[in-house]
Amino acid sequence: MQNTVTKAAPISWSILLPLALAQFICSYAATTMNVSISVIAKDLGTDVRAIQITITFFTLTMAALMIPGSKLTDIWGRKFCLMLGLIVYGLGALIATFAQGIGLLMFGYSLLEGVGTALLIPPVYILCTVSFLDLPTRARAFGVISAAGGIGAAAGPLIGGVITTTISWRASFALQVLVVALIIVLSRRLADPGVQGAKPKFDIIGTILSAAGLVFVVLGILQAGTYGWITASQNFTIGNTVVIPQGGISPVWLFVGIGALFLVGFFFWIRSRERAGKEPLLSTRLFHNRTSNLGLVTQLIQWFIIQGSFFVISVYLQEVHHYNAIQTGLALTPTTIGILIAGALAGRLAQRRTQKRLIWAGFVLTIVGMILLLLLAGLTSSSLASIPGLLLLGLGVGTMLTSSVNVVQSSFPDKEQGEISGLSRSASNLGSSLGTAIAGSVLVTTLVQPDKTYPLALITLVVIACIGLIAALLLPPNPVQSGTATQTGEIRGKA
Questions:
Q1: 239 Cβ partners below 8 Å, 6+ apart?
Q2: Rg for the chain (alpha carbons), in Å?
Q3: Which one of 55, 185, 301, 430 counts the least CB within 10 Å of its CB?
Q4: According to the model, what pLDDT value does residue 495 have?
Q5: What 3-state DSSP class applies to 50?
Q6: How far apart are CA 249 and CA 374, in angstroms?
Q7: What is the C-alpha separation between 436 and 311, in angstroms, rounded?
């Protein structure tokens, strides 16, 4: 099937700039703490594991509440949710700036910034979709926003490292407050065409079930660093009661099992509401589109790799090589450069290559980059040895980020953009949570020798990236065109 070339309309930067900045700052917040782990832990009198949990729960809050947040955009309005999310996010960053303990840091950063992000990110993608109507322009707009997210995640360590070293880690949160204030000013002129038709009702039970399921699954994975993956390396207690004795099954599977039960309950709940003619939190029809399902898998794994690799490499450099924040940020700069190069070439690549090819090529570059990191780290302790691997990692991630978003969003018509945007962002943030939780748990585990945990964590990331590559290869030859055709009824069931 040949691509139909349509000339893209000019992009309105008054619309796109605040949306891109909003995605940038949320992605920045997810990675900037990585380079300050040791400093924050020392300043607040805690340890690396506590900071790992704080970072994980930030992305987990986003993942758990992104779908409900997306539903609220159809009830309260897109622009209202964007502004409310920015205010909540800014308040959380302000609290984190002055936090004197890990509890207050988690409240401001993990909870309030996470809730704010869940409210503001779905409107970003929905407003982009309804503001840019022709596919070429929309693809360019998605490219700018996705690139802003990728650059925010990649530049977070460098910017955070410079600020932490020259001023304080608290100043990094203060910067977020200032950027959020700027976005609020720029967003005042955004136009919201509004939701057509009757407003849906909010599904409270569905929200509780889905959020509880995701929280227990990720919380379970976090237990692996302390108790191991298979059998408990020590007693697991609640209060003074030993729930699982040493040598019993790891509590990882207790928590994951509880989470799975909640998620199964969520599925049956939304299906029962649909059969009763009521509005569910998430329509099951979104999972009937094979192209979108595969695109969601690639999105989840991309952010798994970004967050997981940044956390693992940052902890390794700070704990083993005793790098300070700015040295850690500079060491990760090749990844930022790679994403910038790929972002600059994204438009040309999209005109010459299909979305499928860009996604699987991105995974190949990413896998090769991580293998180079693994091999060269074993040969020398010099940070220069990591440059080729980190550069390829950035090139790979930057090549496929925009394409995956475009595949998922373009698989559904405008009236379903609210739901699919929430599901898409939830998948990305769940990937970030799992990346930090799984790769981080391998890194801080006490079950293998300390010098073996870094290679083991990288091998884990390579295996997950290979799963993403398989999902990319299973996409149809031209997934965006297939998805668009499905919307208009020209093709049924071929996606």
A1: none
A2: 22
A3: 185
A4: 28
A5: helix
A6: 31
A7: 6
With bands split at pLDDT 50, 70 and 90, how would you rate the model's confidence at 178? very high
Give the 3-state secondary structure of residue 244.
strand
Take residue 190 and report the two structure tokens written for it.
């955004």
pTM, entire model: 0.77
| Amino acid found at 398 | G
Which tokens is 69 given? Answer: 């947040």
**Strand ranges inside 197-356, DSSP E:** 236-238, 241-244
Handedness of CA 350, 354, 359, 365 (dihedral sign): negative
Task: Kindly tell me the sign of the dihedral angle through the C-alpha atoms of 488, 492, 494, 495.
Answer: positive
Contact between 13 and 190 (Cβ < 8 Å): no
Q: Tell me what the mean pLDDT of segment 244-257 comes to.
A: 89
Q: What is the chain's mean pLDDT, rounded?
A: 81
If 0-12 CB within 10 Å is exposed, 13-18 middle and 19+ buried, where does residue 285 land? exposed
> What tokens were used for 342?
């790929």
Rounded Cα distance, 146 and 121, in Å:
12
Q: Match 């995605």 to its residue by tokens.
A: 23
Instruction: Give the pair of three-digit tokens for residue 371.
Output: 């293998």
Which tokens sit at 349? 């690549």
Hunting for tokens 């398989």 — which residue is that?
Answer: 470
CB 120 within 8 A of CB 82: yes
Lookup result for tokens 């322009």: 137
Partners of 467 in beta bridges: none
- Bridge partners of 395, per DSSP, are none
